[in-house]
């Protein structure tokens, strides 16, 4: 993939930092660092999934939060009904794959529709579908509606106590590493080459005999599936699912994180997610009106920082 | 004996403007057939319809007897007809080799593979390199397309079209922007394809046209005003009128 | 029957308001190629300025003027400071940058006015009801909104179809470079078009304020609905904006009016209401999906 030496060093350092985080947190008596770390890892998974769609295939979706929310609510709703369902619905090995399958299945249908449009219509129709799901969950009073849905315990993982935050953090980190590894292989594969071709010049791809539609749809479904996993982890982290997870501003922030990290860069997803989560928490401590700072920062990033954090690390020509 | 490409009665209007006026055109297997005409004659629109990017208002297009009039671009390529673009449409961020390898990959049809590294696939790189050698671009294979010269990008454009193993090539001004040496090289290259691949060539460079073409069709205001051997076209009065003194 | 007539008029009123929003948004997209998410913020600014000025001066008309002025001035300032730099950028950049503008303006308004909604009813000389058909009273204010909206629609039509500026707008919507080549000061045209769009948004906000709660976040709600309208109608097409607005206005209003009561037949009251509200919110998106399936470029796409 052509990372520059500087990028590799930073990546290694970041990974070391993330592995050592719980130790650092306990040394500084700041257990909230571990929660922050989990948030970053989870967001990075969601951002990486959107990057597959936006950065790799060139499809800007403004509705990605829907898959996050659907994955999260799948886990939450299964837990809600556990008394009436088989014992394994709160086991991670069942609940998390379900949180992946449900968004994937819906994305297959919705993607089939959305991909009939392109450009700004695509952006808007993905937004519209996400809004649909947002209103749906608000309307379902049985699952908390506006107030959200609590989960009494995290999904059971073998050998891990449900309230062990450090262990859960390492699970999230492992999931992130796995997702990044998979996405990297996909990007380098024949399928990834086609996606990249579609992004660079769809007209050319058709002119060499390729129908882009099935590949775009596959990318759409894959990115939804991975986002579903992030949603499941998110709801497990906070033991709470709320419609806010599907709000369009969440979709917007995911897009911001992708661009912040560097469109198409995959590793940048981690940096984009980290930057946003840290910014959120820092600013929120400072003022209740932190969004007034986030807004101009966003505008500045778009107008000035074209290649994102990862690209800036790469030097003049940048790695990929 | 029917032709490889048969265009009959092709019509296209844009509002009040008639771009293509009941055009009939034949391309025989293995021949080079040039389509010429003054600016605004409708060559680009005709090519766009034959290639599949525009839908004609009326008329049919047959490739080897099969009606392809309503087929999308990608299906026409799979049927054996590939076009190259006047403004090169190569993938700028990929190397020359990667560009052609991608074409080979699409031709082989196995693109839903998610695991193996496509960049190291000799099953793709081998044939791709062969095509690059054919057009004379092999030494520049590892160079990113954005760093190639304009002439080299034209060669790459042709290589990508050839890599689809077409029966018929639609070449849209392949000499555009080339210097005289590069033009000569391209002409020699196209000559070498004669007999292997049928070519429908749209060109302004008359030296190349008369050196290459087995037959020439002249377009004016969307209609064919003359069609025949280069010698016949040279002598045709209507053609001379249309071009006002071009040899 | 009387309920139906009332709801149809409500739908018309909502549709007319949506048209005011959609016309500006679609023109800006068609002519400058700009996706402006902050359009909803201009609506909010119009509503706030108007409500505040009305409270301060006691006059609705002064408030209306204040709303229009605030939206137009702030809109053009926004265009000059930020949006101008986005015309050449791709749509993703525009979406992100204007998203940032929304975050900023929402917080700014919250800091100035607080998060509690401002409630202000219609002015005394427009309140009360009138019998449009014997036995069917309908609020005068809503009739006034319908009338104003239709008048503006008519005015826009005259402007676009029968004036030189309108010709430039129509030409610019399909052939941007051509208009520049005609020697028209493109920058000036863009600012004027944007100003007009901002004015319309501010008008919509100022007029609707007395009907709804004026609060932070009102802009986003109507923005998304407005985008649904212009996608249904066809991007860049004012005619499409009108058709889409009326369609969306009707579908949304009628589903909200009848869905909950229909559901009460099978569900307990509070569940039916919540589900009905949710499904009605979804209705316009389902409408958009159906339209796009049938006509991927919208009902009346602008050519080019």
Question: What does the model show?
Answer:
Helix content of chain A is 72%, strand content 1%. The longest helix of chain A has 27 residues, at 212-238. Chain A has a single domain (5-313), classed as ABC transporter involved in vitamin B12 uptake, BtuC. Chain A has 320 residues and is mostly helical. Chain A has a two-stranded antiparallel ribbon with strand order 1-2. Mean pLDDT of chain A is 88; it is low at 316-320. The longest helix of chain B has 14 residues, at 122-135. Chain B is built from nine helices and ten strands. Chain B starts with a strand and ends with a helix. Chain B has helices at residues 43-51, 73-79, 96-108, 122-135, 150-162, 180-193, 206-212, 230-235, 237-243; strands at residues 5-14, 17-27, 32-36, 58-63, 66-67, 81-84, 168-172, 198-202, 215-220, 223-228. Chain B is globular, with a radius of gyration of 18 Å. Chain B has 247 residues and is an alpha/beta fold. In chain B, the strands form two sheets. In chain B, strands 6-7-8-3-9-10 form a six-stranded mixed beta sheet, with helices on both faces. In chain B, strands 2-1-4-5 form a four-stranded antiparallel beta sheet, with helices on one face. Chain C has a single domain, classed as ABC transporter involved in vitamin B12 uptake, BtuC. Chain C has eleven helices and two strands; from the N terminus they run ααααββααααααα. Chain C has helices spanning 2-32, 39-57, 60-81, 91-113, 140-162, 164-174, 176-181, 186-208, 218-233, 238-263, 269-294, and strands spanning 129-133, 136-139. By secondary structure, chain C is an all-alpha fold. In chain C, a hairpin with a 2-residue loop joins strand 1 (129-133) and strand 2 (136-139). A two-stranded antiparallel sheet of chain C has the order 1-2. The chains are: A mainly alpha (320), B alpha/beta (247), C mainly alpha (304). At the A-C interface, helix 5, helix 10 and helix 12 of A face helix 4, helix 9 and helix 11 of C.
């Amino acid at each position: 993939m052509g990372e520059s030496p500087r990028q590799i060093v930073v990546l290694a350092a970041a990974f070391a930092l993330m592995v050592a985080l719980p130790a650092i947190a306990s040394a500084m008596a700041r257990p909230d660092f571990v929660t922050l770390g989990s948030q970053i890892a989870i967001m990075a998974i969601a951002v990486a999934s959107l990057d597959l769609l936006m950065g790799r295939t060139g499809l800007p979706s403004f509705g990605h939060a829907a898959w996050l929310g659907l994955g999260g609510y799948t886990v939450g709703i299964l837990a809600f009904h556990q008394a009436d369902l088989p014992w394994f619905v709160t086991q991670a090995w069942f609940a998390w794959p379900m949180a992946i399958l449900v968004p994937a299945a819906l994305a297959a249908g919705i993607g089939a529709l959305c991909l009939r449009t392109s450009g700004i219509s695509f952006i808007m129709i993905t937004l519209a579908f996400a809004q649909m799901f947002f209103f749906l969950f608000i309307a379902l009073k049985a699952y908390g509606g506006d107030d959200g849905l609590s989960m009494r315990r995290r999904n059971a993982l073998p050998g891990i106590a449900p309230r062990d935050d450090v262990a859960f953090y390492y699970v999230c980190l492992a999931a992130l590493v796995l997702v990044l590894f998979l996405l990297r292989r996909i990007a380098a594969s024949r399928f990834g080459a086609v996606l990249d071709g579609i992004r660079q010049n769809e007209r050319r791809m058709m002119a060499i005999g390729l129908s882009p539609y099935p590949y775009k749809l596959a990318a759409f479904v894959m990115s939804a599936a991975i986002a579903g996993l992030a949603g499941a982890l998110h709801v497990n982290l906070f033991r709470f699912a709320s419609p806010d997870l599907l709000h369009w501003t969440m979709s917007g922030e995911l897009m911001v994180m992708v661009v912040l990290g560097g469109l198409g860069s995959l590793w940048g997803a981690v940096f984009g997610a980290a930057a946003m989560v840290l910014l959120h928490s820092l600013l929120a401590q400072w003022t209740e009106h932190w969004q007034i700072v986030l807004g101009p920062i966003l505008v500045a990033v778009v107008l000035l920082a074209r290649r994102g954090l990862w690209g800036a690390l790469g030097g003049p020509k940048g790695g990929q | 004996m029917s032709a490889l490409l048969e265009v009959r009665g092709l019509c296209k209007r844009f509002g009040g403007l008639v771009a293509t006026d009941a055009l009939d055109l034949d391309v025989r297997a293995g021949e080079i057939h040039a389509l010429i005409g003054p600016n605004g004659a409708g060559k680009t629109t005709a090519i766009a319809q034959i290639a599949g990017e525009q839908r004609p208002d009326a008329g049919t297009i047959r490739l080897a007897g099969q009606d392809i009039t309503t087929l999308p671009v990608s299906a026409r390529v799979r049927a054996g007809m590939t076009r190259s673009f006047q403004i090169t449409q190569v993938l700028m961020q990929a190397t020359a080799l990667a560009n052609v390898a991608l074409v080979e990959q699409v031709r082989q049809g196995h693109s839903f593979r998610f695991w193996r590294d496509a960049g190291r696939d000799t099953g793709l790189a081998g044939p791709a390199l062969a095509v690059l050698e054919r057009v004379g671009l092999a030494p520049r294979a590892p160079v990113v397309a954005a760093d190639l010269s304009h002439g080299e990008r034209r060669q790459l454009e042709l290589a990508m079209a050839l890599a689809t193993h077409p029966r018929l090539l639609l070449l849209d001004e392949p000499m555009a922007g080339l210097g005289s040496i590069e033009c000569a090289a391209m002409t020699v290259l196209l000559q070498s394809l004669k007999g292997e691949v049928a070519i429908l060539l749209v060109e302004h460079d008359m030296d190349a046209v008369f050196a290459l073409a087995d037959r020439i069709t002249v377009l004016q205001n969307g209609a064919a005003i003359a069609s025949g051997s280069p010698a016949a076209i040279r002598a045709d009065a209507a053609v001379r009128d249309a071009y006002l003194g071009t040899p | 029957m009387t309920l139906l007539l009332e709801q149809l008029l409500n739908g018309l009123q909502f549709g007319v308001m949506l048209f005011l929003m959609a016309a500006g948004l679609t023109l800006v997209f068609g002519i400058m190629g700009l996706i402006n998410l902050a359009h909803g913020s201009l609506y909010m600014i119009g509503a706030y300025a108007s409500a505040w000025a009305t409270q301060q001066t006691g006059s609705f008309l002064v408030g209306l003027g204040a709303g229009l002025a605030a939206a137009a001035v702030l809109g053009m300032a926004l265009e000059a400071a930020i949006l101008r730099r986005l015309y050449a950028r791709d749509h993703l950049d525009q979406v992100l940058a204007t998203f940032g503008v929304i975050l900023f303006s929402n917080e700014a308004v919250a800091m100035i006015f607080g998060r509690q909604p401002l409630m202000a009813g219609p002015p005394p000389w427009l309140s009360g009801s009138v019998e449009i058909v014997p036995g069917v009273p309908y609020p005068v204010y809503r009739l006034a909104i319908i009338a104003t909206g239709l008048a503006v629609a008519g005015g826009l039509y005259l402007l676009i179809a029968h004036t030189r500026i309108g010709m430039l707008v129509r030409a610019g919507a399909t052939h941007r470079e051509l208009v520049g080549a005609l020697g028209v000061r493109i920058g000036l045209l863009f600012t004027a078009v944007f100003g007009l769009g901002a004015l319309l948004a501010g008008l919509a906000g100022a007029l609707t304020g007395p009907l709804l709660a004026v609060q932070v976040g009102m802009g986003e709600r109507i923005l998304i609905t407005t985008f649904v309208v212009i996608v249904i109608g066809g991007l860049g097409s004012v005619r499409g904006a009108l058709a889409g607005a009326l369609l969306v206005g009707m579908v949304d209003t009628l589903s909200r009016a009848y869905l909950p009561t229909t559901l009460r037949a099978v569900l307990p009251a509070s569940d039916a209401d919540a589900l009905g509200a949710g499904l009605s919110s979804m209705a316009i998106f389902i409408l958009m999906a159906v339209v796009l399936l049938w006509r991927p470029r919208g009902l009346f796409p602008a050519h080019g």
